[in-house]
Specification:
This protein is 65% helix and 6% strand. By secondary structure, the chain is mainly alpha-helical. It has one domain. It has a two-stranded antiparallel sheet. Helix 2 packs antiparallel against helix 3.
C-alpha cells in the first residue's frame, strides 16, 4: 500500500502507475487521526463507565476515583464523571466528523 498525501503527489503517482502497471483499485481517504483518537478514548470511557455501574449494582455504593497526577487530585463520583466525559466525547466526535465531511466538498 502506498501512502499518498497531497494532490500533486497523487497525480505524479497516478501518471506513473498508468504507464507501468495496471491499476486494480484506488482508495482516497481523509486524514482522520484525531477522530480515531477520540473514538479510542470514547471506548475506554464507555468501558470505565460500565465497570463503575457494575460496581454500584453489586456493592450498592457509588464508586469514586481521584484525578490528577498519581491520583492525588480531587475525588469524583465515577459514574457522573464518566457519563459527562462520554457526552463531551460524543459531541467532539460529531464535530470532527462534520469537519472531515466539509473537507470533501
Amino acid at each position: 500500500m502506498i501512502n499518498l498525501k497531497g494532490h500533486s503527489i497523487l497525480m505524479k503517482s497516478s501518471a506513473y502507475c498508468h504507464t507501468c502497471h495496471q491499476v486494480i483499485s484506488a482508495h482516497l481517504v481523509r486524514d482522520s487521526e484525531k477522530l480515531e483518537k477520540l473514538i479510542l478514548e470514547r471506548e475506554a470511557v464507555k468501558y470505565n463507565l460500565q465497570v463503575a455501574q457494575i460496581e454500584y449494582d453489586t456493592v450498592g455504593v457509588r464508586p469514586k476515583h481521584k484525578s490528577g497526577y498519581l491520583r492525588l487530585g480531587v475525588e469524583y463520583d465515577s459514574i457522573e464523571y464518566y457519563t459527562e466525559r462520554l457526552n463531551k466525547l460524543r459531541a467532539e466526535i460529531a464535530e470532527e466528523q462534520r469537519r472531515i465531511r466539509s473537507e470533501e466538498g
